[in-house]
Design goal:
The protein is built from 3 helices and 5 strands, in the order E-H-E-H-H-E-E-E. Strands 2-1-5-3-4 form a 5-stranded mixed sheet. Strand 3 and strand 4 form a beta hairpin.
Length: about 80
């Protein structure tokens, strides 16, 4: 399946991009997706473990869970302030 990955704040800076498209297997887990996104990018690899995620605008925290049919993943690093 093809996913739009949108990066915000520190994740955007680490990825050096606001978004990217990736082709992944239909049964991929969030943890496996993190591994793919972090490949060859140590800055992003450092940020991703602290991030939270939205799967088609719904929070997703379990990194062992398969994504299932998905169009968009938002990568949200911890934010400071109110």
């Amino acid at each position: 399946m093809q996913l739009l990955i949108r990066y915000f704040a520190a994740a955007c800076a680490a990825a050096k991009s606001e978004s990217t498209m990736v082709d992944v297997a239909d049964d991929i887990t969030l943890g496996e997706l993190e591994h793919i996104l972090a490949a060859d990018n140590p800055d992003l690899a450092h940020v991703l473990p602290r991030c939270s995620y939205l799967r088609d605008e719904i929070a997703l925290a379990d990194r062992t869970r398969q994504l299932g049919p998905t169009r968009t993943i938002d990568v949200l690093p911890p934010f400071a302030g109110g």
